[in-house]
Amino acid sequence: MQVSPLYPGYEPFSIPVGNNITIAGVRNGTGPPLLLLHGFPQTHLIWHKVAPSLLTHFTLIIPDLRGYGSSSKPTSPNPDDHTLYSKSTMATDMVSLMHTLNYPKYLICAHDRGARLAHKLCIDYPEKVEKCILLDICPTKAMFTTAKHPFALLYWHWFFLTQAAPFPEDVVSAAPAVFARKTLASPSLYDEEAYKAYAAQFEDRETVHAM
Question: How many of the other CB atoms lie within 10 Å of CB of 94?
Fold first, then answer.
């Protein structure tokens, strides 16, 4: 994994976490370990604007989640089996990663998809978590059971991406740039390199499957 210019001075890592899965990312710093987990459809690059401020207080460990960026993107032989991307499975990736890096206990700040993973990590491995901040998530079951028309329009991807494979993969792969613009909104909101990295995810069928 190459280190982006958005993370000058950071050390790249690509660490096996078991079951033929490798988690890639970057790290830097000397303070207490802080694990930063990105959301959909970003990569570890999402934290680049806040990382300089955090780096004065923490050691930052910033991975790509399983299925995203430079981390492994496994595909189940059974399209109806989502175990490979369950939040419990992905939480175990992070626990194995931090264990390998010799961090027995750590802080977590996580956004969106990463926050759901972090929530499950707190449940399954409470002894590993010093403190945790979850950004931009609500209880999924409650949101689905109470959803009305405005919510469905705003969160259209929830309903689209949960369709049976390979329908979402086929549709996104047919027009990846269209889905990138719809999901990410204006490129002006992002650093150019970050936007290109996020948009490229829609061109990778394995990543689309992971979404």
Answer: 27
pLDDT in tens, 169-184: 999 999 999 999 999 9
Asked if pLDDT for residue 80 goes beyond 90, the answer is no
Interacting residues of 136 by C-beta distance below 8 A, sequence separation 6+: 39, 111, 112, 115
Copy the structure tokens of residue 68: 């995203």
Q: Which residues pair with residue 33 across a beta bridge? A: 59
Which amino acid would we find at residue 3? V
Query: Structure tokens of 79?
Result: 């399209």
Distance CA 120, CA 122 (A): 5
Place of tokens 């970003």: 42
pLDDT digits (tens, 9 = 90+) for 13-23: 999 999 999 99
Structure tokens at 164: 């049976």
Q: Would you say how long the chain is, in residues? A: 211
